[in-house]
Amino acid sequence: MSVIRLLVLGAVRQHGRAHGYQVRNDLEYWGAHEWSNAQPGSIYHALKQMAKQGLLHAHEVAPSTAGGPPRTEYEITDKGAEEYFRLLRESLTAYDQKPDVLSAGLGFMVDLSRAEVLALLRERVTAIETWRETVTTSYTPGGDPGQFGHIGELMNLWVHSADSGAEWTRGLIDRIQGGAYVFAGEGEPFVGVLGEGEENPYATGVRHPRDDH
Amino acid sequence: MSVIRLLVLGAVRQHGRAHGYQVRNDLEYWGAHEWSNAQPGSIYHALKQMAKQGLLHAHEVAPSTAGGPPRTEYEITDKGAEEYFRLLRESLTAYDQKPDVLSAGLGFMVDLSRAEVLALLRERVTAIETWRETVTTSYTPGGDPGQFGHIGELMNLWVHSADSGAEWTRGLIDRIQGGAYVFAGEGEPFVGVLGEGEENPYATGVRHPRDDH
DNA sequence: CTTCGAGTAGTCAAGTTTGATTAGTGGGGA
DNA sequence: TCCCCACTAATCAAACTTGACTACTCGAAG
């Protein structure tokens, strides 16, 4: 599962109709370039690719109103919306140790109903626990946990991450169950995109360690 | 930093001289295809690329002894060893939320001295703490942590992961300080590669959630 | 009035990743 | 003996990612 597709579909969907630069700006607003591979090239590539696959509909539009080359506007199709929700549900459920996928899902979770998000997150906890069980038993089949030398630290790390992820997910479940946030069908949603011409307060926001490389 | 380079350099180095399939098998033995992008294509690509860049020396070798196309054997060069240690040190120090990098570093940490590993891990803890500080202050500049709506959960997740990572690293430091494992210059090292003809007990080992996709 | 910088919008070549496919060898069963 | 399968070993096209680059407009400073 490529996180860029979820991100781009979600951004286009929130706008109703959006051109590449708008999507690019939203992702920057969300800090997505910090915690995922949301480079301009990847975004435009994803837009074109998904337009080719019928997930988005491309409108060729006249030269831009504000400088630069003519821009193409995209609208999400029914097939695209379907794919969006599929990816979103998967991102909240699956435990695959890629933190960017969960981050993206978190940003869009309010597009689902409160009840469904709770169900998906509970499923996530179960998935983590199952995975933990499998790893711990598979890697100590003979019963001697010391046989792996320092390689055992790998398993240790995975298990620790899994436990920490499960604990965090349980905390989130509690907060949502306690009435936090506004979900689909519960009234005025939290606006997470930039309007046309609205400035981006986080354009040069948090420095992320990955930037140092 | 691409984890595949560290993994391939480390595997070739442990063998002294290795062909692609051997490297591929080691990575599978380590479960690397589970927690990193260690697909065959990536491995062969990395070998060729690094040979072109002078990090590995390629020996054209006669048709394989056991079926299949003729195989090329690789040996690590001085430049390659230098790069290997650079990547290894970086993988243990840097906090970039990509768990595969740390996993790889962990697998090879015993190629360094106990004192150096301790120093690198302490640096890692400091890096995590610094990052945490930056994120928490940057994302609550006005002082109102509730202004972000559900997007605040993103920060929450990052901070939780950072704390959990720091805690785990401290535990590892304690274990190493307590005398665990055998490091460079401390006698017979733990053998982490498959010998020629040795069977791979984990060839179809742990099922990882990522497999489900 | 022209030059510079900042912002807008997107393209492109180079490199990397994916995983299906190719291709040779040896062994077991009909 | 012959065919099929499993294993060994590597290649390849297609897709994806990177981030530098192009190209255009507007406003302000010189």
Automatic annotation (TrEMBL), chains A, B:
Gene3D superfamilies (alphabetical): Winged helix-like DNA-binding domain superfamily/Winged helix DNA-binding domain
Domain Transcription regulator PadR N-terminal: 8-84
Matches recorded under Pfam families: PadR
Database matches in InterPro entries: Metal_resp_DNA-bind_regulator, Tscrpt_reg_PadR_N, WH-like_DNA-bd_sf, WH_DNA-bd_sf
PANTHER family for the chain: PADR-FAMILY TRANSCRIPTIONAL REGULATOR, TRANSCRIPTIONAL REGULATOR RV3488
Protein name, entry field: PadR family transcriptional regulator
